[in-house]
Design brief:
The protein is mostly helical. The protein has helices at about 1-25, 25-55, 85-110, 115-135, 140-155, 165-195, 200-210, 230-245, 255-260, 265-275, 280-285, 285-290, 295-315, 320-340, 345-370, 390-405, 415-440, 445-450, 460-485, 485-490, 505, 510-535, 540-545, 550-555, 560-590, 595-605, 615-639; strands at about 60-70, 75-85, 215-220, 225.
Amino acid sequence: MLLYKAIVFLPLIGCLIVAFFGKPLGARLSEYITTGLLIVTAILSWIVFFQVALGHPEGLPIKVDVARWIKSGGIDVLWSLRIDTLTSVMFVVVNTVSALVHVYSIGYMHDDPHRPRFFAYLSLFTFAMLSLITSDNLAQMFFGWEGVGLASYLLIGFWYQKPSANAAAMKAFVVNRVGDFGFLLGICGVFVLFGSINFDVIFANAQGFASGPAADVVLSFCGLELTRGGALTVVCLLLFMGAMGKSAQFLLHTWLPDAMEGPTPVSALIHAATMVTAGVFLVARMSPIFELSPDALTFVTLIGAITAFFAATVGLVQNDIKRVIAYSTCSQLGYMFVALGVGAYGPAIFHLFTHAFFKALLFLCAGSVIHSVGGEQDMRHMGGLRTHIPKTFWMMIIGTLAITGVGIPFTPIGFAFTLLVIAALFTSFYSWRLIFMTFFNKPRASHDVMHHVHESPNVMLVPLYILAIGAVLAGTVFVGHFVGEEYREFWKGALRTLSGNHVLEEMEHVPVWVSLSPFIAMLLGFVTAWYMYIRSPETPKRLASQQRILYDFLLNKWYFDELYDFLFVRSSKWLGRFLWQKGDIGTIDHYGPNGVAARVLDITGQVVRLQTGYLYHYAFAMLLGVAALVTWMMLGSSI
């Protein structure tokens, strides 16, 4: 049991040591402490993976009670670690990538004066993510959910001197609050339906709840009286709303590209491999409920397919090397949600598992490129780098081959399938476009920049080598366990499906053209990118000028930022300014404190005029007073 607690709390210990004692310890020792603890955590995570996922332990899931947390009314929540195959897979993903990012950051951030703070934030994020994936109830999951949101805000805005970094951090925080509001409502809905927020109680009663009297009204929401089926659908959609925000799905995606303002290691850790997969983890963990709502699963499928297509179209024309990979992440997350939506939970987590390695590899390679060219991120100012940084080049080739080889044989034929095949074509195109623009043709950077181009140090290259091995082998070695014949022995009930869910069997019997579609799309994307950026480099400029409206539409990300700015940002500012000027100043202050104070000043201003300082004025006033007193006494005595 101590093993599982060590995995979760060692990053927190490193964070607290460096946060409170980083200044006296110094930057170098702070790096070594946090990185060393993460390496130990990663090794322990692989041990747990082999013991739990690949072994045959009894009594899964394993429960490790840490402390009693909340006991109020009907809510009785322990802080308990839930260890099963899904948790062990996420252990490997989170801690392996986090440890490698820590090592990589030692080289990438070596000139930054605030390295202790940076490494404390990285370890804080890792602890929050581990709290999320080990949660045994929805309250604990929400704690980790908000924790990774906080750490993301701190890391995106790490370079707080840059206004763009502050704006990006605020944007990520606000957009995620929208999704988190839905998630919180979903948690409340689960409690209303099942009387508990503990996973064991929810999962044990889900099937029985759904099979109860269909006409019973069990939930009132926004004026609607919902029966059992409708209530399950609403609760699932609210939970998925949280997943949409955290995993940057269509409509709540706008924060992810701007998050590239943070240091590149942050992009690799949070916005490629770990935090953005929290939404996928949530839906997979809550699969016993989602399986009971076909309508919710259909919605998940559609949102995932639209996200995959949308992000791929925008990635076609981006010039910032990190933003291309960011939109690639957004698109690949869409693939995962499509898999979840059609009930293929194993393939979805398998893609999450392999994606972590090759996407972290691509981001860290991008960081190595940026490091070599003095901070330049615009691919239009690169080119011809493969001979200067050959190790980075080959590592990026491996990552690109991994991402363009993503297959989608498990998706249904129809609208979603069409969008995903097109997205696969676009993915191949923009991935190879990045390679060709960055590493091929003549250098487009200045002579001074090219003169100083250099390969990254080994402390940055070794993590690339390890991630490259993961990108190559993770899919090959473990595919049989995640989605193949050893599926049930591997998952051991961590992913639950209804008896009528035969999607994994149907995968084996799809038409040949369905299986070949991703490969053909990948090949077409590669050939098109090669022609446009190697054979005929003038073609992209000519197309952009001929199709200016479409080009601007994609370059401006379908104008979602402008639309949201008009609908929400400007309207909120106008409302706030109106309430400030007319409500606060014009009404409350005018008739309230300021108005009373002004009237007092007016009255005292009139009264003070009586004080002239002349003796005969005071004598006359006293005479009037005496006359009034005598008159009153005379009249009073006569009455």
